Amino acid sequence: MMLMRFLRKLHKWLGLIVGLQVLLWTISGLIFAWLDHHEVSAEHSVRTPDPAVLTPSISLVEAESWSSELASGEILEIRLTALLDHWVWRIETRSGITLRSAISGEPLRLTEDLVSKLAQRQYVGSGRLASVAFHPASTMEIRGSGATWAARFDDGRGTTLYYSADDGRLVEARNDTWRLFDFFWMLHTMDYAGRDNFNNPLVITVGFATLWLALSGALLLLRSFRRQDFAFLLGWRRTTAFNSRSEAGNSLD
Hints:
By secondary structure, the protein is α+β, with helices and mostly antiparallel strands. The chain has six helices and eight strands; from the N terminus they run H-H-E-E-E-E-H-E-E-E-E-H-H-H. About 15% of the residues are buried.
């Protein structure tokens, strides 16, 4: 009896805690369904620049002429690409990425001015460029992307374009709708630090707690019934048996 009383109390309080998380899962799921995924991705705020044209009049430095300088870095890839109106060699080694001017062969680094021009060329919207900031490490908005440049626009939606500090490629576009989505994503995954780990101890604990609630609830439900609760079934069986015997007797007559 004491065990059942303790089980009921534990079931009640644990159900309250788990129930709050289930409510958050429900609300966040509704938010995901309600938000326009095109708006969340901010894809309407970014245009793909027209591809640069490499004309015969442009004289390029051969990659082989200076690749020996990077031999110790174990070169993984050398690629010719365009950065705004400049042609550059993008060299990827095991130690990182280097940009060199394809015209002069000089090392090229991204600057605030260069990122400003990149952002204004790719941004689509009514806002103006408000700020450009350098982030030496991954931020909560750009997780796992390393160092980036952030170009923020004052368009009322907080649109921010993030560029890789290594090669100037557009990493992500973010806005206030994405930030709202990301907040509820955090509540949904219960990963309050990285926001992407479905296997974190907290969500596993709540999962096992929910399973325990279901099993203990089934036990308490069975224990709550009494024999008299099924009296109508017993009465129905007696009535059915009596009617069957009566029909059998009438057929013999």
